[in-house]
Amino acid sequence: MENKLMEMKSFREIRGQEAAIGFLKKAISNDKIATAYLFTGIKGIGKSSTALAFALSLNCSNPVDNDGCRECQSCRRMINGNHPDLLIIDLREKKDSIAIEQIRDINREISFPPALDGYRVIIIKSAEKMTVEAANAFLKTLEEPPSNNIFILNAADTGQLLPTIISRCQKIYFRPINEREIEEFLINNNDVDEARAKIAARLSEGSIGQAKIFAQDDFFSDRIDWITMLHNVITSPFASLFDIAQKFINKGNPKDNRMNLMLRVWRSLYRDMLLIKYGGLQDFIINFDFKEQLESSSSAFTIDGLLQSISIIVRAERDLMANLNVLFLIERSLFALKRVVNSA
C-alpha cells in the first residue's frame, strides 16, 4: 500500500472540474458523505488530484470554504505523505492489474478504526484494473463497509468494473478540460510557447496530464519522426513496411508509451486530412505546422479512405491496451493503412 510524499493540491488549485468539486464540497457542507465514490473520466484530468484534495478537506481541522487549510496537523501530515488514515492503492511496478492481495491489505487496515479522529480515505487508482478475484473481494468490502471509511475509486473505463461495484458508489464524472484552459496552463505553468501549447492542447483531447507530455521537447522530436514515418507508409512500396516497423521497434522499449503516443499523433493527422478534404474548418487542424504536407498527402485519399484509416488506428489503440505484441500490431496497422492508399 502506498502513502508517500506526493503533490497534494487543494480544491482551489484544481482546474476545469468545478462541477465535480462543487458536488463534493456540498456533500461536506451538508455532512452527507457517501461510503464510496467512483470518479470517472479520461486520464490526466484531475481525478487523483481531486481525490487527494477531498481527503485533505475531510480531515482538516480548520477548513476554509470546505477546503483543506494546508496548515493544521492533519493537512501537514497528508502533504508530507505520513498520514495514517490516507491509503492509496495503485498498480504495482511492472504489473498491469490490481491483485487480490492488495484488496486483502485494505481489509486488514479497515478492520481497525481510523488512527485519528476523522475519516480513513482509501483511494484506488486505475480501479478498473482489478482482477476478477480482487473485484469480487472488494465487492464484499463494499457490502458491509466499516464506519468512517471512505473509498474513492478512480477509473478511466467504467465498462471494466463490476456493475455491482458501480451501483454501490456515488458516481462523479470528470469532464475533459477546455482546450483554451489547457493552453493557458501550459504557457503559464510549464513555460511553453504559444504555438507548441496550442498543438499539445489539441492533441491532449481534454487531458492536462497528456498535454504536459505532448509539450515536452522529446515528444516534439518524436512527433516529427512519426509524421515522417507515416508519410513514408503512404508513399513507399509495400516491401519497405517491414523495415519501417522494425526501425520503430529498435528505437525504444516496446513496452513504453511511445506506440500509444505515435498512434495518437497518426490519428490526429488523418483527422486533419479529413478536415482538409472536406474543405474549410482550417482553424481546427491540430498539426497546423505541417499543413502543407497534410494538404499534399490528403490528395492520395478519398473521404471513405480517411475514415477507414482512422478506424484502423482506433483498432490498434484498443489492441495495444489489450497487450497485443507490439511488432505484430504495428506491422498489421502499416499494411492495413497502405492498402487503403492503394485502393484509393
Summarize the model shown.
This protein has 344 residues and is of the alpha/beta class. Helices cover 53% and strands 7% of the residues.
Tell me what you see in this structure:
With 344 residues, the chain is α/β, with parallel strands linked by helices. The chain folds into two domains: 163 residues, 3-Layer(aba) Sandwich (Rossmann fold), CATH 3.40.50.300; 127 residues, Zinc Finger, Delta Prime, domain 3 (Up-down Bundle). 53% of the residues lie in helices and 7% in strands. The protein contains 15 helices and five strands. Strands 2-3-4-1-5 form a five-stranded parallel sheet, with helices on both faces. Helix 11 packs antiparallel against helix 15 and helix 14 packs antiparallel against helix 15. The longest helix has 21 residues. It is elongated, with a radius of gyration of 23 Å.
| CATH level-1 class of the largest domain | Alpha Beta
CATH superfamily grouping of the largest domain: P-loop containing nucleotide triphosphate hydrolases
CATH architecture assignment of the largest domain: 3-Layer(aba) Sandwich
Which geometry do the CA atoms define? Answer: elongated
Read across the widest sheet, the strand sequence of neighbours is 2-3-4-1-5
The quaternary organization reads as single chain
Overall pLDDT: 90
Q: What fold name goes in the CATH topology slot of the largest domain?
A: Rossmann fold
Strand content: 5-15%
Number of domains: 2
What structural class do helix, strand and pairing data support? alpha/beta
Order of helices and strands: HEHHEHEHEHEHHHHHHHHH
Cα Rg = 23 Å
